[in-house]
Design brief:
mainly alpha, 58% helix
């Protein structure tokens, strides 16, 4: 998926670093009114990068990544990704809850426009079909998956923002 060597990833399914460095940069983000459920690995990687830690990328190392075997598992994972977006924006990037709401609403509207315009989904599905592990017969499956991913992300983001807003209104606040 990331075959462009110019892309600098801050995370990976096969990521490792020295324990002393992880402790030095403060580990993964924690201590908020909700547990950060997605994006915390990218935040961790960015903290390492800002610290000046050298990243070494080796595409010859193969790390198995297991895809969910049921739709329910897939939906739960994608929903979690959606939940993590407002968490990182608000708690890590320190954006106000109102700004995060505004960004989420705008992004949700754009996501639905994307679904209804379908062109971007067809282009992405075509790119995914040309990967090493796929074939042309998967094209229609990728279209369906892209639509599900968009819906799950939007629903997860809005659901998490409702939870954070509710907790803040009740006075549970630490970030």
């Amino acid at each position: 998926y990331y075959q462009n060597p110019k892309i600098e990833l801050n995370w990976s399914e096969g990521f490792s670093c020295l324990k002393v460095l992880a402790i030095e940069i403060g580990m993964f983000p924690k201590g908020y009114i909700v547990n950060i459920c997605a994006g915390e690995d990218a935040v961790f990687g960015e903290k390492l990068r800002r610290k000046g830690i050298k990243f070494i990328r080796d595409d010859n190392i193969i790390v198995k990544h297991y895809a969910p075997s049921t739709f329910k598992e897939f939906w739960k994972i994608r929903l979690g990704r959606g939940r993590g977006a407002p968490q990182v924006k608000h708690f890590i990037n320190k954006k106000s809850i109102m700004i995060v709401w505004l960004e989420t609403i705008i992004k949700s509207i754009l996501s639905f426009i994307k679904i209804f315009s379908i062109i971007s989904i067809l282009i992405r599905s075509n790119k995914l079909c040309r990967s090493k592990v796929s074939h042309v017969g998967d094209f229609h499956k990728f279209i369906f998956v892209e639509i599900i991913v968009i819906f799950a992300f939007v629903i997860g983001s809005i659901d998490e923002l409702c939870l954070i807003t509710k907790l803040k209104c009740k006075g549970v606040f630490n970030g």
